[in-house]
Design brief:
This protein is about 0% helix and about 45% strand. It is mainly beta and about 70 residues long. It contains no helices and six strands. Strands 4-3-6-1-2-5 form a six-stranded antiparallel beta sheet, with no helix packed on it.
Length: about 70
């Protein structure tokens, strides 16, 4: 399995929109979890038309090029 990495991060209003290098695994949706830099976040948003973008609560610890792991919540 290829490593999935953050390619872009956009922060606003306490949220972070993250774009990753590979498609988000099938079956992952809002309410599921993502692990970034040994910290776990709940996915709070995902667009229907894009398989590489999701939203979490904003944190300064999340940076471009970090490895992302998705989990069912």
């Amino acid at each position: 399995m290829k490593e999935i990495r953050i390619t872009d991060k956009f922060s606003f209003a306490g949220m972070a929109i993250l774009i990753v290098s590979e498609d988000i695994p099938k079956g992952i949706w809002m309410g599921d979890k993502v692990k970034i830099a040994d910290e776990t976040f709940i996915i709070t948003g995902m667009p229907i038309s894009d398989n590489r973008t999701f939203v979490i609560e904003d944190t300064a610890k999340v940076r471009v090029n970090q490895v992302v792991e998705f989990y069912k919540g």
